[in-house]
Amino acid sequence: MNLSQAELRRYQRHFNLPQVGVEGQEKLKQSSVLLVGLGGLGTPLALYLAAAGVGRLGLVEFDQVEESNLQRQVLYGVSDVGRPKLDVALERLREVNPEVELVPHAVRFGVDNAAELVAAYDVVADGSDNFGTRYLVNDACVLGGTPNVFGSILRFEGQLSVFATADGPCYRCLFPEPPPPGLVPNCADGGVLGILPGIIGSLQANEVVKLLLGIGTSMAGRFLTFDALTLRFRELRLARSAECPVCSESASIHRLEEYESVCEVPAPEFETTVVELSSELEAVQLIDVREPHEWQIARLPGAQLIPLRELPGRVDELARDRKVVVYCHHGIRSRHAVEYLRNEGLSNSSSLRGGIDAWSREVDADVPRY
Q1: Residue 355 contacts by C-beta under 8 Å, 6 or more apart in sequence?
Q2: How far is Cα 147 from Cα 138, in angstroms, rounded to an integer?
Q3: So which residues are the catalytic ones?
Q4: Distance from C-alpha of 269 to C-alpha of 193, rounded to nearest angstrom
Q5: Is-contact 329 312, C-beta < 8 A?
Q6: In this structure, are residues 31 and 113 in contact, taking their beta carbons and an 8 Å threshold?
Q7: What is the value of pTM for the model shown?
């Protein structure tokens, strides 16, 4: 056996499973998994895969712990705020299982490193939180022949599947191209139930272990959706598309491409920075296009609340004889608002770059971040 006495004690419950046993545990020890992201999905993935005894875990993460992470990213605590997530993860996972080799990758998963990272592992578990990375992970896995255990979360809904197996479909078989920029909200603006990533991340870990052991029925060829409000799972059958741009015989994608995060829209010509706004605050009309519940959390002094959905019916409330600055959480909704207002003839309107979050970070730290 390749297992130490400590490992024999640690994995007793696995040994009692005929589908795992000592042979399966040795197989897990010889396996490797790349985790892309250590956020809401990546943290339960990392915890359970380390506890299960996967021999080598690659951890791709470049961000730092923020207070808003603590609602759902269970790997981190209050004392970790401001620290690199990767540093905290290495400490915590070594406590979970010192027998596992942890390989830190303090980089952004991108075109310049995706192929090399994917090629070094048996399975990839995608815990990314944006479409740009999601499509890049998919393409790198398809081109590299590495299975991709996919998960995603938003608000109260989660999704799960396994892509890029030998005969199975890939993410592009279902969604051939990324959605238009600005169409899809991110978790910061759309919100996410804190428990949801734990559910989906745990399901991802389950699929990873099944793939490594070669047991059970894989989610390859199946697409699972989960509604936390109704506690209902729905499953769709998914076949490889004959027109898939990356995994079909007629594929048009043969090399990796970088995608912008489609949670964001390109910076418009008419923007105001938070520094500029701070110097002209008294002279402008400040419009907040967030929702009332966001307004209750934090607001800028002198602002007027007009939720984006109400803007078409309240245009007359906006000044035409002085500058109008529109803001939201991160500057996405406000860009749409300014585009609408300028089409309505309010050429004096501009969007606050980075939204109220940038104001909190760069101008007034007393304005709560969320």
Answers
A1: 327, 328, 329, 330, 331, 332, 334
A2: 9
A3: 187, 328
A4: 35
A5: no
A6: no
A7: 0.76
